[in-house]
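Appendix C: a fully annotated inverse folding record. The material below is reproduced so that readers can follow the format used throughout the book. The structure is listed first as tokens, followed by the designed sequence.
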């Protein structure tokens, strides 16, 4: 607890993905007051051509859980 999933465009290096995952883990551990080693992070690269599906289904398709809105429209 907790588990965090991040979706982003494909094309980032394994090192970049590992760095962002570590930073997210650290921030979530602190914010949730979780014990070290209890936060998990997965990163799902998405093709640019498929991002509209993420936008429609998971961003504006799930406004109940959307806490930070993007500053762009599709």
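Designed amino acids, in order:
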């Amino acid at each position: 607890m907790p588990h965090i999933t991040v979706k982003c465009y494909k094309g980032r290096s394994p090192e970049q993905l590992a760095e962002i995952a570590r930073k997210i883990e650290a921030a979530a551990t602190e914010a949730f007051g979780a014990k070290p080693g209890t936060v998990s992070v997965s990163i799902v690269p998405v093709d640019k051509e498929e991002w509209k599906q993420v936008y429609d289904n998971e961003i504006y398709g799930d406004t109940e859980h959307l806490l930070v809105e993007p500053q762009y429209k599709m």
